[in-house]
Structure formats: structure tokens, C-alpha cells
Design goal:
The protein is α/β, with parallel strands linked by helices and 379 residues long. It is 49% helix and 10% strand. It has three domains: 49 residues, Single alpha-helices involved in coiled-coils or other helix-helix interfaces (Up-down Bundle); 211 residues, Rossmann fold (3-Layer(aba) Sandwich); 55 residues, Helix Hairpins. The protein has 15 helices and seven strands. A seven-stranded parallel β-sheet has the order 3-2-4-1-5-6-7, sandwiched between helices. Bound molecules: guanosine-5'-triphosphate (GTP) and magnesium ion.
């Protein structure tokens, strides 16, 4: 890298453009107080900032194997980065660790904002940690970058869990699109599993497409609901209910218990008529309170029954394999798409094509054919 020449602060009047016999050297951090050339930006910053050592792929791999949480967190940051150099190391780390992943229980948790997902995860996660399990919490929430709401909320709502040495909480990456966030969460899951976490909880807001995405990366899908509101009001689409392996009515505490029980009966009858999403498993309905802890153990008991049932039937392996194939297809699509639109030939030709279509000079189908041919011909 070419060292940028710096001009002195003071130059003789009218000397602009002249070549000076001396050049001012770039400041050096960490010099002695008062030494010329020292960069001190303000008086509070006298201690030099410790630079973080750049880690190699091998450092990341070994660190994660040794369950080093700082390194795990840094590896996830690497995965979340869009810089090509970071992605290259991230892929190397992932490739090395994939054979060591896959041993955790992967559980998705969804429900409308305010249903109590984060509070539930705090209680549920703490219970699992007390049983000696290591719990990682990830979030798939493409909206969180805009509102910042869930990240802020989670900091206060998962206070105990976030301080628990057996738990690891990672908010949703600021990836923009759902596809991007989901891809990063999948890869993050691999790293957490390689780092020895036994249970991965993936939280997502149950109002859109994201629960379909989360369903495709977990074994068990839990839907939290509220009593006393119609399903329409809760913004829950029938499709989300159909994706679930269990529905628990949260906030079953205080004067709310009877209503929660009524809702549970209602759900029981709804579930009877639905086609189960998991072959051989009958989705169940229950009640719980994330606040008092009531019914939280029943959720885990249900999950344990679910694993026993699906492992025995072979559906567990079948689903994991299918998810791998889906993941592969998703990555192919994403890779092709981003390469195509970044291609200089396409970048140049696309606006011309658009203009021709607008002017009615060519058909959409013919333009697409033309662009694809140009892209693939270059090899
Ligand atoms: N009474 C009662 N209140 C609860 C319970 N669980 C959560 N809450 C309250 O409900 C509110 C929302 O809880 P959160 O855990 O933030 O809900 P969330 O589903 O994570 O919300 P988003 O992250 O915004 O989607 C908070 O004020 C909680 O204290 C419960 O079991 N009983
Ligand atoms: Mg939340």
C-alpha cells in the first residue's frame, strides 16, 4: 500500500504546490507522551487501542472445537460479513466443521409480536441449562434491522440467560433480505453445534414468510399463542398452524388461566382436522406461562416425545436430509442470481434491454433468453 505523503501543518505563505525538502511522517501510535509524531486524538485516549489479532481459518476451527465463545462469536461475525475475503475464510471454517455439527436439537419458536417468545426462551433456556444442557439462541427476523425492537427487547427479556455461561444468544444478523438472514442463521447453527451446544432455539416473528424459512431449518416447530383473541386478530395464518408440531397458549397465569384452557380445547379440535406437518406425529396443544414458569417443563417433555417418535420412525433423518437438499438448492439459486446481476456484461446490457421492452421493440421472453445466453456463453 502506497504510504500517503502528508503535508506539514504550516507552510510558508504562498508556497502552495512547492516541493518541500522534508515530508511529515505519518503519526505513530503508542509513542511516548509529548513525542513528535504521536497520534493522540483526545486526552482520554492515551492508552493505545489493543488491536485484535487477525485469526486464521485454523484458529477459528480450533477455537470453536475448544468451545471458545469469543472465537465462536467472531466466527459468526465473519459469516455475517459480506466482504469476499471474510466469506472465503468463513467457508473454509464451515467446511471443516460441518462433519462435527448436527448433534443438537433444533427448535423453532414463533408467534406474533408480544406473545412472549423472548420471555419464554429465557425461562425455557434457563430450565435446560439447569438440566446441564448448553443452549444457543438465534433469531431470524429480517425486520429487526429496521425496528431494532426485538434486539433491544431481547437484551432485557433474556437477562438471566444472557449471563448464563451455558447459554449463547445471537440476535438476528443485519442481512437485509430474509434469504440472507436465513442463510447466515443456518451457518451460525453449524458453528454452534460444532462448539458443543445441545439445543439451538431459533426465534422468529410469526407474521410472514420467515416462519416457513425457519421451519425448513429446524426439527421441531413451536407456535406460541394467546388466549382471548381470535386467530385472525393474532395475525396467525392457518398455514403457520399447519407448520407447527405443538401449540402452546402462553400467559396462562393470574386471571388468564381459564381462558387459556378454553383456547387449548379449541386448538385441540382444530388440530384434529389438520394434516400434520411431521409424518407420524400428532401436533399437540398445551398451556404455559413464560412468566411463572408453569407448563414450561411440559414443552420440553413434548419435544422429547417428538424426538423419540421421529427418530424411531426414521422421519428425523429423512427430514434432515431433505433440509440439506433444500439448503443446497437455495444456495444455488442465491449464488446464480447474485453472480448474474454482478456480471459486467449483464450490468451493461440490462438497462438497454429494459429500454427496448419499454419501447415495445422486443418481448420479455426474448430479452431474458438473450441475457442468459450472453451470461452463460462467457463461461
Ligand atoms: N402475564 C404474562 N406476561 C408475559 C408472559 N410472557 C411474556 N409476557 C409479557 O409480554 C410482553 C412481551 O413479551 P416478549 O417476550 O417480548 O414477546 P415477544 O414475542 O418476544 O415479542 P417480539 O420480540 O416483539 O416479537 C412482555 O411485557 C412480557 O413481560 C407470560 O407468560 N405471562
Ligand atoms: Mg422477542
Amino acid at each position: 500500500m502506497a504510504e500517503e505523503k502528508q503535508r506539514p501543518e504550516w507552510v510558508p505563505a504562498g508556497a502552495d504546490g512547492q516541493i518541500y525538502t522534508t515530508e511529515v511522517m505519518k503519526g505513530v501510535t503508542g509513542g511516548h507522551d509529548g513525542m513528535p509524531g504521536q497520534t493522540v486524538h483526545n486526552t482520554q485516549m492515551r492508552t493505545p487501542i489493543k488491536k485484535r489479532r487477525v485469526l486464521t481459518a485454523e484458529d477459528y476451527i480450533e477455537g470453536i472445537r475448544q468451545k471458545n465463545r469469543t472465537i465462536l462469536a467472531r466466527a459468526i461475525t465473519l459469516i455475517e460479513s459480506n466482504a469476499p475475503a471474510h466469506q472465503e475464510i468463513a467457508q473454509e471454517v464451515l467446511n471443516a466443521l460441518i462433519p462435527e455439527a448436527g448433534n443438537a436439537a433444533r427448535i423453532g419458536i414463533t408467534g406474533v409480536p408480544g406473545v412472549g417468545k423472548s420471555t419464554f426462551i429465557e425461562a425455557f433456556g434457563m430450565m435446560l441449562c439447569e438440566q446441564g444442557k448448553k443452549v444457543a439462541v438465534l433469531a431470524v427476523d429480517p425486520s429487526s434491522t429496521i425496528s431494532g425492537g426485538s434486539v433491544l427487547g431481547d437484551k432485557t427479556r433474556m437477562e438471566l440467560l444472557s449471563r448464563n455461561p451455558d447459554a449463547f444468544i445471537r440476535p438476528s444478523p443485519s442481512g437485509g433480505t430474509l434469504g440472507g438472514v436465513a442463510r447466515k442463521s443456518r451457518e451460525t447453527m453449524v458453528l454452534c453445534e460444532a462448539a458443543g451446544f445441545d439445543v439451538i432455539l431459533v426465534e422468529t416473528v410469526g407474521v410472514g414468510q420467515s416462519e416457513v424459512t425457519v421451519r425448513s431449518m429446524v426439527d421441531f416447530f413451536l407456535l406460541l399463542m394467546l388466549s382471548g383473541q381470535g386467530d385472525e386478530l393474532q395475525g396467525i395464518k392457518k398455514g403457520v398452524v399447519e407448520l407447527s408440531d405443538a401449540i402452546f397458549v402462553n400467559k396462562a397465569d393470574g386471571s388468564n388461566i381459564d381462558r387459556a384452557k378454553a383456547k387449548r380445547s379449541e386448538l385441540h379440535s382444530v388440530l384434529r382436522f389438520l394434516q400434520p406437518h411431521t409424518e407420524g406425529w400428532k401436533p399437540t396443544a398445551g398451556i404455559c406461562s413464560a412468566e411463572t414458569g408453569f407448563g414450561i417443563d411440559e414443552v420440553w417433555a413434548t419435544i422429547e416425545r417428538f424426538y423419540a417418535c421421529t427418530r424411531e420412525s426414521g422421519f428425523f433423518d429423512k427430514r434432515r436430509q431433505r433440509q440439506q437438499i433444500e439448503w443446497m438448492h437455495a444456495l444455488i439459486e442465491e449464488g446464480l442470481k447474485s453472480r448474474f446481476f454482478r456480471d459486467p456484461v449483464i450490468k451493461e446490457r440490462l438497462p438497454q434491454m429494459e429500454a427496448e421492452i419499454r419501447a415495445g421493440q422486443t418481448s420479455v421472453a426474448a430479452s431474458v433468453e438473450d441475457l442468459l445466453r450472453r451470461y452463460f456463453q462467457k463461461g
